[in-house]
Every structure is written in C-alpha cells, then in structure tokens.
C-alpha cells in the first residue's frame, strides 16, 4: 500500500513537470516571454519538490538501517502525517523495527544463556585466532591455569613455558596431554582442538580438561586387574606346594610326634621324593613368573635410529615364513615405499614378531586364514604399523584385559607379551591399540607419535 501511494505521488509530479515543460516549449515558440519565465520558475520548483520528496523517503530508510546497524531501536517514525504514502511507510518501518528488536532481544537472551553455560562448565574452554589473540576464555580455564585475564596465548608462557610451546603450533583436530606443575599441585591436562568460523574468521576452539581424577581411577582399576591376575597365578603355584607339603608332613609326623625311620615304608619315601620334585618344579615356575615380571619393569631405553619401513617389514616376512601353515597367507605392504621410522629396530621387531605370532596362532583353524602387516601414514600425518588377521577375534568382555600383565587365554605362555609390547611403544612415545570384530578381523596398530 505504501509503495503504491509513493508511485502515484511520483507519477503525478512527473506529469506536472511534463506539462510545465510543454508549456515552456510553447511559450518559447510563440514568444510568450512572461509565460515562459513563469514556466521556468514553476518547472524548477517542481523539480526541487520532487527531489525533496524522493530524498525524504531515502533519508528515512537510511536512518532506519543506520539505527538497526547500531542496535538503536529507539528510532520511531511519526504515523500522523498528512501524506498517506508516508503514513503507511512509517507504520511499516515501525513494525519492522519492533520485529527486529524482538529478535535481537531473543538472541541476547540466548547468548547470555550460552555464556552462562560456558562459564559454569566444568571444563576449560578457549578460542583464539591465527594471531594468537584469545577471544574467549571461561573462568574454569583461568582457574585451571591460575592466570587471569587471558588475552593472548603468549601469556601461557608465564604459566608454563612448555604449555605455550604446546599451544603455539596447535593444529585443528589434535589431542595433547600436558602435565602442569605449579606451587600447589600437579595437574594432568587433556587438550583437544576444533576449528570454527566466526564472521568469516578462522578460530581455534580448545577444550582443556583436568583428567587427574580419571587417571587415578584408571590406575586403580589397572592395579585391581593386575593384583587379580597375580593372585590367580601365585595361588595356582602355591596351592599344590602347600597340599604336597602337608601330605609329606603326615608321613613323618603322627599325633604330634616324629615317626621313626624304621617305621617308614618304601612307598612313603618314594612319594616324598616325587613330592619334592613337584615342589621344585612349582618353585621354578614361580621364579620364572617373577623373572617375567622383572623383565616388564626393566625395559631398556630405546636405542633409536632411522629405519626404513620396507626393510623392517621384509625382515618380519622372513621371520614369519617359518611359522606359516599351508592354509595360512602372510602378506606385507609399506606405503609410501620410502617410509622411515625413528625407532629401536630390535625392540619394534620383537613387538611385531610377538603380534605376528599371535595372529598366526589365531588363524590356524580358520579357513583361508590371512595375516597382513602394513606400514603407512594416516590422514593426520601419524605413522603406524598394523597387524591384521581374520581370526576368531577377541570377545568384547576381554578387550580391556589383554594388555594386563600375565593375563592370557592360552594354555601356554606367560601373558607378558602384549603388556611388554605396549610398554615398548609407550617408551617410543607412541601407543599400541587394538580393534576387534569377532569372526571378522582383529587389528593391532602401533602408533608412533
């Protein structure tokens, strides 16, 4: 309605200007100088009023958008005006202004709500731009770092120089663990980064969490598992010793008195000898068990060197070939061909032999059993070596137990191999992870940090 009235006003004024121009032309032809002067004056006045009419509308709309840009919603346009088109336009602008104000207030409420959630969150949250300027840091983060206010990541050097060295090259989708030490305590921090875009600017969102309690719980859980396995193994060894010792004692003591040698039968002496042999054997097993525990605790520091991935896998291929069954296939692949690892070759070779041997044992009874070892680089640029098989896999209830020292599902073996392998990888600054889908595939991945 407002735009139609505006058009009518413009058309009417243009028609008046056109008629005035025609009058001016006739006056010039017929030499009506008085009429010509009046027409010129009237034409100029009409042009002036037309421009003023159009500019008044433009200025009104410009004021409106300037006020919206500056978040000034107090601007009101008079609705009691003589020109109907202006009246309708002013009403429309006021309605739009009210609507935008309502939306703006709703957004402010939501923003305050989200801000309060971020402030009360139990994890530290921080965003910073490519130049290192911190745009947001919640109170939890400032409390974790014991530093406020945080305006630039360079300030982290005042908290801990190594913490700044972690943040400075921090890339999106990275995870880091950092132990922060201050005069009060040691805090184990987990750092995770995510890229975000705000107003066309690239920012990095970093979530910082104190995982000290979680680590304590995991450590306690690991000790419980270890003690359970140790108790099981030791009891299996000690129980026969105690039983046999009790039987032998009964041969030589009755009613609290020592039995004379002349009253001993030859079978009792023979059984005593056999019992002592069993005790010796069980004691030897217990000594081997303790020795394997010592080997887990005394893993030497890696003597690292740059080793070609292709050559390393070829060596594993030769060593595993002697263990192959006719129905089992063993293959290797290194991509890229010039892939190199900075490792202790002897230690990593032993880890791969242990994993390869376990994989071959698992596919012995599987039709078309396959074991594949692959070295490569993942999408995040992390080097890895995988040992994959299509054996029966690991049951879900045991997946968390396999790295516990001395835990084994085999009838033979100490159960030290996987835990020792993981220890070697940790000393290389990496990790050993497992993924298993029963009766489909099992993958052990060596990750080199």
Question: How would the blueprint of this fold be written?
Answer:
Blueprint: H1 2-30, H2 33-69, H3 84-120, E1 124-129, E2 134-137, H4 139-145, H5 156-159, H6 161-167, E3 175-181, E4 186-198, E5 201-210, H7 212-252, E6 253-254, E7 257-258, H8 266-297, E8 305-308, H9 309-321, E9 328-334, E10 340-343, H10 345-362, E11 369-377, E12 383-389, H11 417-427, E13 431-437, E14 441-448
Parallel strand pairs: 9-11
Antiparallel strand pairs: 1-2, 1-5, 3-4, 4-5, 6-7, 8-10, 11-12, 12-14, 13-14
Structure in words:
The chain is of the alpha+beta class. It has helices at residues 2-30, 33-69, 84-120, 139-145, 156-159, 161-167, 212-252, 266-297, 309-321, 345-362, 417-427, and strands at residues 124-129, 134-137, 175-181, 186-198, 201-210, 253-254, 257-258, 305-308, 328-334, 340-343, 369-377, 383-389, 431-437, 441-448. The strands form four sheets. The protein has a five-stranded antiparallel sheet. The longest helix has 41 residues, at 212-252. The model has no long low-confidence stretch (mean pLDDT 78).
């Amino acid at each position: 309605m407002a735009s139609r009235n505006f058009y009518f006003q413009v058309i009417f004024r243009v028609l008046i200007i056109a008629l005035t121009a025609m009058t001016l032309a006739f006056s010039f032809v017929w030499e009506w100088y008085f009429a010509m002067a009046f027409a010129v004056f009237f034409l100029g006045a009409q042009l002036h009023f037309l421009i003023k009419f159009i500019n008044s509308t433009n200025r009104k709309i410009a004021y409106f958008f300037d006020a919206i840009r500056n978040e000034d919603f107090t601007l009101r346009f008079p609705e009691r005006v003589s020109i109907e088109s202006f009246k309708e336009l002013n009403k429309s602008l006021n309605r739009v202004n009210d609507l935008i104000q309502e939306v703006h207030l709703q957004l402010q409420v939501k923003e305050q709500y989200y801000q309060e959630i971020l402030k009360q969150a139990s994890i530290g949250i921080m965003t910073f731009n490519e130049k290192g300027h911190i745009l947001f840091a919640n109170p939890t983060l400032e409390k974790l770092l014991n530093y406020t206010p945080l305006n630039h990541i360079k300030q982290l050097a005042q908290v801990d120089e190594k913490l700044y060295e972690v943040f400075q090259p921090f890339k999106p989708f990275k995870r880091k663990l950092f132990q922060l030490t201050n005069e009060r305590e040691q805090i184990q921090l987990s750092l995770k980064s995510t890229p975000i875009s705000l107003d066309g600017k690239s920012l990095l969102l970093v979530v910082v969490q104190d995982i000290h309690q979680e680590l304590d719980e995991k450590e306690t859980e690991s000790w419980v598992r270890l003690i359970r396995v140790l108790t099981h193994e030791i009891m299996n060894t000690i129980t026969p010793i105690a039983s046999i010792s009790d039987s032998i004692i009964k041969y030589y003591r009755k009613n609290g008195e020592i039995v004379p040698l002349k009253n001993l039968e030859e079978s009792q002496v023979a059984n005593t000898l056999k019992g002592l042999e069993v005790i010796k054997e069980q004691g030897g097993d217990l000594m081997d068990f303790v020795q394997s525990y010592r080997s887990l605790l005394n893993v030497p520091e890696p003597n690292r060197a740059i080793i070609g991935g292709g050559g390393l896998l070829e060596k594993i291929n030769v060593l595993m070939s002697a263990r192959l069954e006719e129905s089992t296939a063993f293959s290797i692949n290194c991509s890229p061909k010039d892939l190199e690892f900075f490792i202790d070759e002897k230690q990593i070779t032993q880890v791969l032999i242990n994993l390869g041997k376990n994989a071959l044992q698992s596919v012995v009874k599987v039709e078309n059993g396959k074991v594949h070892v692959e070295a490569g680089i993942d999408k995040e640029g992390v080097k890895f070596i995988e040992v994959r098989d299509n054996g029966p896999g690991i049951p879900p209830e045991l997946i968390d137990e396999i790295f516990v020292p001395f835990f084994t599902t085999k009838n033979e073996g100490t159960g030290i191999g996987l835990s020792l392998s993981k220890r070697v990888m940790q000393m290389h600054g990496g990790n050993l992870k497992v993924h298993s889908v029963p009766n489909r595939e099992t993958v052990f991945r060596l990750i080199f940090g």
